[in-house]
Every structure is written in structure tokens, then in C-alpha cells.
Amino acid sequence: MSYVYAAVIGILIGIFIFGLKTGVGCGFSTVKKKDVLILASGYFLIPIILGSLVEMVDQSYLEGVADLGMTLHVFIALFLIAAGVYTQKKWNCGHDVSKKTFLVISVPCPVCLTALFVSCMILASTLEMSGWKVGIIVGLVFFISVISSTFIFRKMKRTPEDLGTTMMFLGLFYLLGAMIVPAYIKAKKLSMEFSTGGDFDIVPLLVLSIFIIGGYALNSIRGQ
């Protein structure tokens, strides 16, 4: 029983942390409180809908989405970086576009929706509850996370420029993850095949090194 409680609490904490991403977008932008409430309410309803579909959706569809996981991460990463640069550039020119660009970081993406669906599926199986009831629990946690984190981030008195920085950082994090995970998986496979005399492919490591060096150089140039 303790294992079940630990698993449930772990998943709910993960969902709460996942909601912080939306809270950052709402808290660092100048979007109205009414719009934040609408977005949070949407995040409350989405898990209920997804939970209701738990028993109807074939798991093979999830496998297809998982196969596209890294591709989606790269696409989202590039989109976040571009939106972050655009937000900062416009803010420095005296224009606030955060009311629009915050959607890039706050609106549910395919990865987010898949994570919510999988969370509902695992919780429904673990707690032996119907999907829509689990969806209410997940949605409530997400709603509280979005509202509370938005309130806290707004107390920090941040500007849309900080939103742009956060979006770029998160985009780089996504991009880095999209490179490291496949490289790690490949390295694990190569470690098992190393005894057969296979050649070690250092391309992923070279790409990662170039990425890190490029980021350091860009930061140095901006600091001058």
C-alpha cells in the first residue's frame, strides 16, 4: 500500500511541477488575470476529457507518439527559442508582445497532453478508479499549480524580458535533452556491443560539444 501511495504522490508532484511551466508564462507576461483563470480552467478540463478516454484509446497510439517524442521536443525547443528572442527584441524596442508569445510556453503542447494522458492512465490503474474521476484529481492539481505559481511569479515583479529569457533557456533545455537522450541510448547499446569490436560513434558527443561551446561563445559576445 505504501508503494501505491508513493507512486500516486510522485505522479501528482510531477504534474504540479509540470504546471509551473504554464505559471511562468502567465506570471512573467502582462496577460490579464481573467485570461489566466481561463487557461487554468482549460487545464482543469483537459485531464477530465483525457481521463474519460483512457479506456477507449489504444496504447499503440501512445507508442506512435513516443516514437515522435524527440522530433516534437526539437520542434518545441526551436519554437520556444524563437519566441523568446522575439519577445525580448520587441520589449527592448518598447513593444510588449508577451500577451501573445506567452501562449508558446503556456498552451498545452503534444508532449504535455501525452504526459497528462499517461498520468491519468497510470493513476486510474493504480487507484482502480474510473478515468474521469482521476482526471478531476489531475486537473485540480494542475489548476492549483497554474494559479499559485502565477501568483508567486507575479510577486517577483518580472518583465516580459525575463519571459523571453526563460523561454530561450527552456528551449535550450529541450534541445539539449533531445540530443542527450538518443546519444545516451545509443551509448548504452554500443557498450553492450563493444566486445564485438564495433566502432564507437562520437558524432553525438561532437554535436553536444559544439552546442555547449557555441552557447558559451554567444553568452560571451552578448556580455561584451
From TrEMBL:
Keywords, comma-separated and alphabetical: Membrane, Transmembrane, Transmembrane helix
Pfam families membership: DUF2162
Claim: Membrane is one of the keywords in the record: yes
Sequence intervals crossing the membrane: 6-24, 36-54, 66-86, 102-124, 130-153, 165-185, 200-218
InterPro entries in the cross-refs: UCP037409_transporter (IPR017199)
Identification of the protein by name: DUF2162 domain-containing protein
